[in-house]
């Protein structure tokens, strides 16, 4: 670009470098323009020319380089100089949004044939020359079809997981059978637990008494052995294991043949407690035998379920609430602890899906301040899924009786590891309150709550809870796959509450080692032949895939 001033100073010409195109030509009348004015004009032009050059370059780069006159260039650059741009792209987007809104408001035609992939859709669009509206309609139909298929797959996965969690793995079933057979044929498996000289210890309050109610032999052994291994004074530990009649022989044989000395273990079946009669537990008898209740827990879980208005997480919670264990007497036994152990003052009640990692003797030193139940509250904590439970998560507050007596924002607490003051408990009406609300829920056809034994306990222990530090009891390892591993290592008790139990195939692989390491230690310590059954129990016609999945290759060499 060149600037030419005539010798007479009467004309000013701006031309391109090749000289063929005059971009700007100004004629100056000598009598009307002074040199000062001309000088100022040149300065202004010198300031503007770089911007003109930049805009020209932009137009050229955009492919608009065929202008042969200043008029053409002005038409190209004028809108840019004035701050306006071509809005054809924005109009296209607005038109597309308008089409999407129209398609969203219309019904998808019945019987529409949909392609199986996006590539097929594009190919079909090209071949049939679809307009934008038809393309959007087909795309919407494909997305809704995929969403339905994904939901159906998710619900099927949840149902299969529920059945897996409710069933007994073949390896554990065979373990119980083998031990029952051992009980009938081996006198050592039938020896008295504990030995006669230790019977007074069972009611000695200077010892630390643990109560465990379960029909899972393998889980019970993990709880007991983890407690002994973690204790600073294992000789002060007494375990009271309560099981049902069908499991009693196998449970007794296991602990008779595998003593956990110096700790003391007592194994009793529910049939051996004189207090557990139909007269004393009429409500639980009704819960266990009521046809409607049994059908709810054992029947078709999809019958009457409106899956179209249910989220997968809500459906999973409903399935968990229908676990058959919730109508088992073993699951309700904790409400009768003062009557089952009339000579004890304090006990720690444990679930069978926990692992103890620290000495628990300090629990007996906690001052409960006149309360009955020392428990971890579950309404506050870093894990918003596990530690966000209030009464509204367990009760149906549309029920008038629930709305009248309960506060939806009241903090919930956890079963699984609780320190109970039985002396204080005996002065309360906790058991009567528990029975009353169970009856009311039965009358309402289970419309007040549907999640097992915790809801009535939340009501019965209302005003009798003493919160203890959360580090005593870490929950969620049976349903929270994102459990903080470092916090789990530091917790005194870790709890696999939820469906993904560590002894099941559906257990979380990265959380299972906390549980399996207990039996690996037993194996290394050279226990009896029964310990080997934990790793490779076989039944007739059992496939390798039916065996509990623990790899112990090389364990004996460590």
Automatic annotation (TrEMBL):
Residue ranges of coiled coil: none
Single biological process term from Gene Ontology: cell wall organization
TM region(s), chain numbering: 37-61, 514-535
UniProt keyword annotations, A-Z: Cell wall biogenesis/degradation, Glycosyltransferase, Golgi apparatus, Membrane, Transferase, Transmembrane, Transmembrane helix
Primary localisation category: Golgi
Topology in membrane: Single-pass type II membrane protein
Cross-referenced CDD domains: GT8_like_1
Highest taxon of the lineage: Eukaryota
GO molecular function: polygalacturonate 4-alpha-galacturonosyltransferase activity
Cellular component, GO, one term: Golgi membrane
Any Pfam family: Glyco_transf_8
Subcellular localization(s) per the UniProt record: Golgi apparatus membrane
Pathway(s) it belongs to: Glycan metabolism; pectin biosynthesis
InterPro entries hit by this protein: GAUT, Glyco_trans_8, Nucleotide-diphossugar_trans
E.C. code: 2.4.1.-
Similarity comment text for this entry: Belongs to the glycosyltransferase 8 family.
This protein's name: Hexosyltransferase
Species assigned in the record: Gossypium barbadense
Source lineage: Eukaryota, Viridiplantae, Streptophyta, Embryophyta, Tracheophyta
